[in-house]
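Record type: monomer structure entry
Structure origin: computed from sequence
Chain ID: A
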Amino acid sequence: MTNLYIDFDGVIVNTIEISYKIAEEKGIERNYENYLQFFQNLNWAEVLEKCEPINDSFNCIGKIIDSKKFNVAILTHVTSIHEAEEKVKLIRKYFDDITIIPVPKSISKTQMIKTEGSVLVDDFVDNLVQWKEKGGIGIRFDLDMDGKGFPVIDRLDTLIDMLD
């Protein structure tokens, strides 16, 4: 069975859209250090309460699990323990028994698990490039269907037939 890792932010829920809107409202200057500090101090419970699933993502993940074609896990970058806790709480509302791997933002996702032969679905191209360099299969999630050099999907359950 193929290992399938699904990113959280921008793939399962629209946290990117919501959090950047909050940053803009607070006048956070757009640079790495300011954004890192902003995300570390963000009230993730409030953010996730405002977020919506993207293209029926939780039901799609359920269908993927039910297909029994993949070992499914959520692989998500986090900037704080609080962020990880809140993401786990949200995922547990939908799935009692799915692996959730929070990855510190300063570490590549490829350093957390065995990538060779495994699939990563992510909206961030740099993550996919690193994944491919380590022998993994990268699939870009993008609502505009712009793969930027990778196979692309805009709905998670399309993976069932795509990866036969």
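Annotation 1: The chain has a mean pLDDT of 95.
Annotation 2: The helical segments are 15-25, 32-41, 44-50, 57-67, 81-92, 125-133, 159-162.
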